[in-house]
Write a structure and sequence with these properties.
The structure holds 3 protein chains of 3 kinds. Chain A is an alpha+beta fold. Chain A is 34% helix and 25% strand. Chain A has a 5-stranded antiparallel beta sheet. A 4-stranded antiparallel beta sheet of chain A has the order 11-12-13-14. Chain A has a 3-stranded parallel beta sheet with strand order 1-3-2, with helices on one face. In chain A, helix 5 runs antiparallel to helix 8 and helix 9 packs antiparallel against helix 10. The model of chain A has no long low-confidence stretch (mean pLDDT 96). Chain B is α+β, with helices and mostly antiparallel strands. Helix content of chain B is 34%, strand content 15%. The N and C termini of chain B lie far apart (58 Å). The mean pLDDT of chain B is 97. In chain C, 29% of the residues lie in helices and 25% in strands. Chain C contains 21 helices and 30 strands. In chain C, the strands form 8 sheets. In chain C, strands 3-7-1-16-13-14-15 form a 7-stranded mixed beta sheet, sandwiched between helices. In chain C, strands 11-19-18-17-12 form a 5-stranded mixed beta sheet, sandwiched between helices. Chain C has a 4-stranded mixed beta sheet with strand order 20-28-29-30, sandwiched between helices. Chain C is globular, with a radius of gyration of 27 Å. The C terminus of chain C is likely disordered. The chains are: A alpha+beta, B alpha+beta, C alpha+beta. Chains in contact: A-B, A-C, B-C. The interface between B and C is large, with 56 and 55 residues. The structure holds flavin-adenine dinucleotide (FAD) and FE2/S2 (inorganic) cluster (2 copies). The site of one FE2/S2 (inorganic) cluster has 10 residues of chain B, from loops.
Chain lengths: 290, 163, 757
């Protein structure tokens, strides 16, 4: 039986040092809602756990100078929901983060863990992709930035380098007439893993879409940024033809599998349905705010 | 195997215990701390029978390492009543038959208490979604939801009378 | 037996005796008990669906530091197949001994092959991995159709059907009239085939036990089960320890629904404890529960119903194939015996086939078999009613079984309440309410009925008056749903005292007389009979004692409001003697006051229910949700209405899960692919509406309080009610469960696809 060491450093530098030193046997612990399940089921037997929740930068939610947001990688869904303004600016990202698990799970689970766990079905990821979030990572060789969509490498894998820790998500400032939304399909009303998830971020002017991003989850080995769907929306008034085109682009982008949660045919169909519904909600929010 | 020494607070009392670094908070509660009111239905965050709060935040104790409680405040079902006096939710669950086998009851009560602290006047839908992480196979949830809503109503009325 | 009228406590929503412990976290469930020196047991399970076990080498595991004992099938008492059945209730010990530990063959992934006890759980788990099992992997089958193929791998080579080795291990039929003749009279005949998937009982508490075997062989078992006497008997059979040496203490049980009517861990833990000399605790993980404990059967049913133009059913034929899992014993009796029972059908043939396949052995699940059969029958009846352009409830009323109807499974009905349930459903606010607008989603309403046998059987109780004049009742049935509350109401009613003065506990096997399982909806029916008789004996004693004090005839004393009174002014003028006073005087008046009664109770009447369900379907995503539900049931007499409603609501919730999402999903390798709550998908709180209950009370004349079993009927009609509602919403019928989103979408798209081809 391998022994486990638990470390809870107070600074990021210490955490990076300890994490890098322990090598492949080490795991970062944020909310633990994936990690502990994997440990209990025997999938994972880490030698060192580095708990990052005592590091202020990783649990902070800040408004940036340009009006954007920086969210620490270990901020729990509940903490994000309690923030005064975040949910008003990024309702779609917030609803995605808060679809993760139960209230109990939301008390712990972080967007950072959701991303680094590498599940193509992670709920916050398509919303973050749609939001155009940039992540900051820090490793033995210093800090760097990546687009959110570049982090996942495949089911259970990321493009973080050995020893790198995800530090935060940076969301850009919002031009007027912008909003976002996230919807997922699950068989029950709660407590399921997404069969398909769809995040849409829109900017509208006089009823016309001037900017759009679409993220799609659980339909491919990694969460997808669907640029063709965004293109179909931009310049349109979200009329039926534009929505149908964007929905087809989503369906076309799918490379799903048949598994216990859904079939290929079902996922492809649902991707399109969700795009239409999510875009409608985002548009309604974007126009309401003007 | 080297055990870890943890200093924490449980139901308002300072507490120390020894555990394996890989033990969950639920393992510690049910083992060295002998607080078996928190139940293990799945050990994977799906049933909510192990619900506790840490610094007033509702969590599954099976999804938290025991060592993570160091320096924090833990509350469990055993701390819900005030001595001899039941919490209004406990009383209402009894009066309204909101339990059958009772294995989910600890978790239901801890979660419902967390809800009412955050949202003293929840709608039925809010109660149902808040409790979605607490499985009950016996009751069909009907009486549980009613008991939570009725408790909320009573507490609201008391509040109003007090003002 | 006198029927109690003017009730003070019967029918009241009193607070249950065990409630306080359960809301404060004090209640001791099976996994909550510890003992000094306790060690941990773990089970090594077969990874293969079907494999011959050539050899098992446990030597490496035994050498691991911390390991205290290892057991394999060699340690379990064998019940050789050729020696014939050794029955305990409905369980044959030949199968039980092979189910708790594989002997020559492993028959499903999860089948135990060895067990280890060690000082920690982690060491026990590690040791399991060191056990070397030499398997000869065999071909396997799980689905009924596969198990019935001519070249299917045979699980039990000794078994023959039609003279050939077969996986059909049992058949039964119920027959009435002549169906061939009957179908000739029919103006309309509808025949359909339905399938259902295996579903798990889904109790939240995993199986657990703690067992100590002293050097003299005296064994103490703390475990969670639906019958401490069953635990004792099975453990005795499988370990060879006499029953008199086994004290089985019933822990509080965290749900069972039939799934805890057999043992899995107790014999293993007993043998580990015996070998190691240490108390052994075993607790299943959720995954073990899902892989290795009994779900109920998957099924394939064909139902044919013939009716005349004026709406009379003239003939019906049902064929029900049910998966038994690894060993014989699927609930064909419930499927074949209950499904047509609400109806007066002159010509009927109902057949059940028990089919073995490579998945865990089924265990009882709430009205075992009946919901499977009712799903098929009630869906076909809905179609027949539609074809006849009749309201589905009117159609049922027209064909309803009544007093005097002969059921195909034997009995001629006494006064039953089926018609009343249909009438109450028809006149319910729910049935009258418009469906309303679904806001883009399609809505529909469905109805269905159901029947369950209910059961009596052995029960024992002891009622004692304490020295301070209060009451302790000890019964022998684990209480899963609030039966102690019902007993307290009844005892308080009879004694005329406040129910809070009655303490009701569940005795262990060595302190209360034999009591059969908590199952068959029998507990309150049977235990209230023995408690009533015990209490009546006590009242007789109390009257005699008062008579002695007053020096009058005991017949001249009546018991009322918790005290003895002179029966009439003629008897004399005396101040009443209260229970407290008589208890205080007991030592001088002949000694302690108490009475015990043991009966094999008879007269359990079957139960009927009729349900109304509204659904709403999101057609683009294929998601169906139940938005309104009313369960009507003839409950005999609701002793504690809160817990009767609770039975109805809980049963309905389980049925909605079965109808919409729950199912065992298997991998290509024949293993359960969703062995946890996350992907097994039982209903969560936000999935369900409030569940309205209408309790029709037609008292059972053979029971002192009129009680009928209520626990199982509520699951029987649900899947059909949901399926009929979905048909009403979509205009398309489902012939398979679950009606999960991908399947709903597939079905909705099917014709368009056909048209396009
Ligand atoms: C009952 C239940 C329901 C769930 N439902 C959902 C759901 O509906 N939707 C959904 O998307 N997910 C769901 N999940 C999965 C899980 O809750 C989420 O993925 C969650 O966001 C993980 O966050 P965490 O903080 O708990 O991660 P952790 O478990 O702490 O970490 C997850 C992984 O990421 C790594 N990691 C974490 N933080 C960092 C970092 N900063 N830098 C580098 N690596 C890091 C960890 O080492 C680990 O491998 C559910 C889980 C449970 C138990
Ligand atoms: S035991 Fe923690 S959620 Fe089930
Ligand atoms: S009361 Fe049994 S699980 Fe809720």
């Amino acid at each position: 039986m391998t022994e486990l060491r638990y470390l809870a450093p107070d600074t990021l530098d210490e955490a990076v040092g300890a994490f890098a030193k322990a090598g492949s046997a080490a795991r970062i612990l944020a909310g633990g809602t994936d990690l502990l399940v994997q440990m209990r089921s025997g999938v994972l037997k880490p030698g060192v756990i580095v708990d990052i929740k005592r590091i202020p930068e990783l649990t902070a939610i800040e408004q940036t100078a340009d009006g954007g947001f920086r969210i620490g990688a270990a901020v729990s869904g509940m903490a994000l929901a309690e923030h005064e303004t975040f949910g008003k600016v990024w309702p779609g990202v917030l609803e995605a983060v808060n679809l993760i698990g139960s209230k109990q799970v939301q008390g712990r689970a972080s967007a950072g863990g959701n991303l680094c766990n590498g599940s193509p079905a992670g709920d916050s990821v398509p919303a973050m992709v749609a939001a155009g979030a940039i992540v900051t990572v820090q490793g033995p060789n210093g800090r760097r930035e990546m687009k959110v969509e570049d982090v996942p490498a495949g089911p259970g894998r990321t493009n973080l380098k050995p020893g790198e820790i995800l530090v935060s998500f940076t969301l850009p400032p919002r031009p007027p007439g912008s909003s976002d939304a996230y919807l997922r399909m699950i068989p029950r009303t709660e407590m399921d893993i997404a069969v398909v998830g769809c995040g849409v971020s829109l900017t509208m002017k006089d009823g016309t879409v001037t900017a759009a991003r679409v993220g799609l989850g659980a339909v491919a080995p990694t969460v997808l940024l669907v640029e063709d769907a965004a293109k179909a929306l931009i310049g349109s008034k979200l009329d039926d033809a534009a929505l149908a085109k964007a929905a087809s682009a989503c369906s076309a982008a799918c490379r799903p599998i048949d598994d216990k949660r859904g079939t290929i045919a079902y996922r492809i169909k649902v991707a399109g349905v969700l795009l239409k519904r999510t875009a409608a909600i985002a548009a309604q929010r974007a126009t309401q705010k003007n | 195997m080297a055990k870890v020494h943890v200093t924490t607070s449980i139901n308002g009392e300072p507490m120390e215990f020894l555990c394996e670094p890989s033990d969950t908070m639920l393992d510690a509660l049910r083992g060295p701390l002998a607080l078996t009111g928190s139940k293990e239905g799945c050990a994977s965050g799906d049933c909510g029978a192990c619900s506790i709060t840490i610094d007033d935040r509702l969590v599954c104790s099976c999804l938290m390492l025991a060592v993570e409680s160091e320096g924090h405040e833990i509350r469990t079902i055993e701390g819900l009543a005030q001595g001899e006096k039941l919490h209004p939710l406990q009383q209402k669950f009894l009066e309204m038959a909101a339990l059958q086998c009772g294995i989910c009851t600890s978790g239901m009560l801890v979660a419902s208490d967390a809800l009412l602290r955050k949202n003293p006047d929840p709608t039925e839908e809010e109660v149902r979604f808040w409790l979605a992480g607490n499985l009950c196979r016996c009751t069909g949830y009907d009486k549980i939801v009613r008991a939570v809503m009725e408790t909320a109503q009573e507490l609201q009325n008391q509040e109003m009378r007090a003002h | 037996m006198n029927l109690v009228t003017n009730n003070k406590w019967i029918g009241q929503r009193t607070i249950r005796p065990d409630g306080m412990d359960k809301v404060t976290g004090r209640a001791q469930f099976a996994a909550d008990t510890t003992m000094p020196g306790m060690i941990w047991g773990k089970v090594l399970r077969s990874p293969h669906p079907h494999a011959r076990i050539r050899s098992i080498d446990t030597s490496k595991a035994e050498k691991l530091p911390g390991v205290k004992a290892v057991v394999t099938s060699k340690d379990i008492v064998d019940f050789p197949i050729e020696k014939g059945a050794v029955m305990l209730g409905i369980q044959d010990m030949r199968w039980m001994c092979r189910n708790v530990m594989a002997r020559d063959k492993a028959l499903f992934p999860g089948h135990p092959v060895a067990a280890v006890a060690a000082t920690t759980e982690a060491i026990a788990e590690e040791a399991c991995k060191l056990i070397e099992v030499d398997y000869e992997v065999l071909p396997w089958s799980i689905e009924i159709d596969d198990a019935l193929k001519p070249d299917a791998p045979i699980l039990h080579e000794f078994n023959k059907f039609d003279g050939k080795p077969s996986n059909i291990v049992g058949r039964l039929e119920h027959k009435k009239g002549d169906i061939e003749q009957g179908f000739k009279q029919a103006d309309i005949v509808i025949e359909r085939t339905f399938t259902t998937r295996p579903v798990h009982q889904g109790y939240i508490e995993p199986h657990a036990c703690l067992i100590s075997v002293a050097p003299d062989g005296k064994t103490t078992i703390w475990s969670s089960s639906q019958g401490q006497f069953m635990v004792r008997a099975m453990t005795a059979y499988l370990t060879g320890i006499p029953q008199s040496d086994i004290r089985a203490i019933p822990a509080e049980i965290g749900g069972g629904f039939g799934g805890k009517t057999i043992v899995y861990l107790e014999p293993l833990a007993t043998l580990l404890a015996k070998k190691s000399g240490r108390p052994v605790k075993m607790v299943m993980t959720r995954e073990e529960v899902m892989r290795a404990t009994g779900p109920t059967s998957g099924s394939k049913s064909t139902v044919k119903v013939g009716a005349t133009k004026d709406g009379r059913i003239v003939a019906a034929h049902g064929t029900f194939y049910l998966q038994a899992g690894a060993f014989p014993g699927s609930p064909i009796r419930g499927a074949a015996g209950c499904s047509f029972t609400p109806y007066d059908i002159p010509n009927l043939l109902s057949e059940g086939y028990d089919v073995c396949s490579n998945r865990s052995k089924v265990a009882a699940y709430r009205a075992p078999g009946a919901p499977i059969g009712a799903y098929a029958v009630e869906c076909v009846l809905d179609e027949v009613a539609e074809a006849l352009k009749m309201d589905p409830l009117d159609f049922r009323l027209k064909n309803a079984a009544r007093e005097g109807t002969k059921a195909a499974h034997g009995p001629v009905f006494p006064r039953i309440g089926y018609v009343e349930t249909v009438e109450a459903a028809k006149s319910s606010p729910h049935y009258a309410a418009p469906l309303g607008d679904g806001n883009g989603k399609l809505r529909g309403r469905g109805t269905a009925s159901g029947f369950w046998f209910n059961a009596g059987g052995e029960s024992s109780a002891q009622v004692n008056i304490t020295e301070d004049g209060n009451v302790v009742v000890t019964t022998g049935h684990p209480d899963i749903g609030g039966s102690r509350a019902g007993i307290a109401n009844i005892c308080a009613e009879l004694l005329g005292i406040d129910y809070r003065r009655v303490s009701v506990i569940i005795g262990d096997t060595q302190t209360v007389g034999f009591s059969n399982l908590t199952g068959g909806s029998r507990v309150l029916f049977a235990s209230s009979m023995v408690v009533t008789q015990s209490t009546e004996k006590i009242i007789q004693t109390l009257r005699e004692r008062a008579a002695k004090i007053w020096e009058i005839d005991p017949e001249a004393v009546k018991w009322e409001n918790g005290a003895a009174h002179p029966a009439s002014p003629n008897a004399g003028q005396f101040e009443p003697l209260t229970l407290e006073e008589l208890a205080e005087k007991a030592p001088a008046m002949g000694g302690p006051i108490g009475a015990g009664v043991q009966l094999n109770t008879q007269g359990a009447d079957g139960g009927f229910g009729t349900h109304v369900c509204d659904v709403e379907v999101d057609v683009d995503l294929g998601i169906a949700r139940v938005i309104r539900y009313t369960a009507v049931q003839d409950v005999g007499r609701a002793i504690h209405p809160g817990y009767v409603e609770g039975q109805l609501q809980g049963g309905v919730a389980q049925g909605i899960g079965w109808a919409l999402n729950e199912e065992y999903i298997y991998t290509k390798e024949g293993k359960v692919d969703n062995p946890g709550f996350l992907d097994y998908r039982m209903p969560v709180c936000s999935d369900l509406p409030m569940i309205d209950c209408i309790m029709v009370e037609i008292p059972n004349p053979k029971h002192p309080q009129g009680v009928k079993g209520v626990g199982e009927v509520p699951l029987v009609p649900v899947m059909a009610a949901v399926a009929n509602a979905i048909y009403d919403a979509l205009g398309k019928r489902f012939y398979a469960l679950p009606m999960s989103p991908p399947k709903v979408v597939e079905m909705l798209e099917a014709p368009t696809r056909q048209a396009a081809e």
